Amino acid sequence: MNGWTASDIPDQSGRTAVVTGANSGLGLVTARELARHGARVVLACRDATRGEAALELLRSQVPDADVELGRLDLADLSSVRAFADGLADERIDLLVNNAGVMALPQCKTVDGFEMQFGTNHLGHFALTCLLLPRLRAAGPGARVVTVSSGLHFLGNVDPRDLNMERRYRRWIAYGRSKSANLLFVHELARRLAAEGSPVVAAAAHPGYAATNLQTAGPRMEERAWAERAVEFANRLVAQSAEDGALPTLYAATAPGVLPDEFIGPRVQLWRGAPVRSIRARWTLSDVAARGLWEASEKLTGVTYG
Q1: CA dist list (Å): 301 to 79, 120, 187, 294
Q2: Which of 27, 65, 195, 208 has its CA 20 to 30 A from that of 52?
Q3: Which InterPro entries match (predicted)?
Q4: How many C-beta atoms surround the C-beta of residue 188 within 10 A?
Q5: Which residues pair with 267 in a beta bridge?
């Protein structure tokens, strides 16, 4: 794993990957590198205009890329179902749950969930369960990679207040949604092992990578000073999106990745080549993971089948 780069990605010819949030940042880099190494890639994007621009850019960077665009709004469960229905006849070898929102002002998804929990966790939970039949059918080598964050240490999931209705704090809400990602992977890996499935569920995080994720919240609230501060910090201390995507690409393609592994940058959850990352103990709780799973099934109406 030492010094692993995108050039170490094994040949992906014959494999189909779905990457959520592939219109920019980590998702676009992930989609590009998978396509560069032979995979057919579906770019799952919320905004059609930005998705088309990303598709055009990717094709200019990888002229022989086999890529297509699909509309997916993780903050709308009807969109999640429609996207999954559109892939009903597709072979899917890899699902990268990359899309996410960070530290937004308090707002809700179409279905009434707190936006960060609803988008980062519930949307991906529903999508993964709906696409599992396609992943199972792909056989050995199929993987689900969910992108969490080192900031999951900010907060554990509170089963009594999943939507943070008692007291909303944007960064705690973000941390809880990223802990939910890891609890989801933990329980998914357990369930797949119990059924004897070869599908591997793993997680990754990018460290501190310069993307538009950090500026979305300040922009929504028209806090220009905060947006400028974030942009300055991105230039000063963040690693590039290309480097930030490496843990995801490692978890998605490297040989020997184990179920429930968490891959991140080498240096203090911040930057560097991908390695096995530390994680909060609460994200390895069987009881918490099972409870969150059962609650997620009830909230989304999507069950593990």
Answers
A1: 14, 17, 18, 10
A2: 208
A3: NAD(P)-bd_dom_sf, SDR_fam
A4: 26
A5: 271
User: Domains in the chain, ordered, with CATH?
Assistant: 8-300 (3.40.50.720)
Rounded Cα–Cα distance for residues 101 and 135 (Å): 26
Q: 108: helix, coil or strand?
A: strand
Whether the CA torsion 145, 148, 153, 156 is positive or negative: it is: negative
Which amino acids are annotated catalytic?
Answer: 174
Give the number of other Cβ atoms within 10 Å of residue 219's Cβ: 13
Alpha helices (H) along 37-169 = 48-61, 77-86, 115-116, 124-138
Retrieve residue 217's tokens.
Answer: 């919240």
C-alpha pair distances (Å), 242 with each of 234, 239, 247? 14, 8, 10
Query: What is the full per-residue pLDDT of the chain (305 aa) written as tens digits?
Result: 568 999 999 999 999 999 999 999 999 999 999 999 999 999 999 999 999 999 999 999 999 999 999 999 999 999 999 999 999 888 999 999 999 999 999 999 999 999 999 999 999 999 999 999 999 999 899 999 999 999 999 999 999 999 999 999 999 999 999 999 999 999 999 999 999 999 999 999 998 865 565 444 444 444 453 444 444 444 445 578 899 999 999 999 999 999 999 999 987 666 788 999 999 999 999 999 999 999 999 999 999 97
Say how far apart CA 30 and CA 98 lie, in whole Å: 9
Classify the C-alpha dihedral 87-293-170-272 as positive or negative.
Answer: negative
Q: Which amino acid is at 18?
A: V
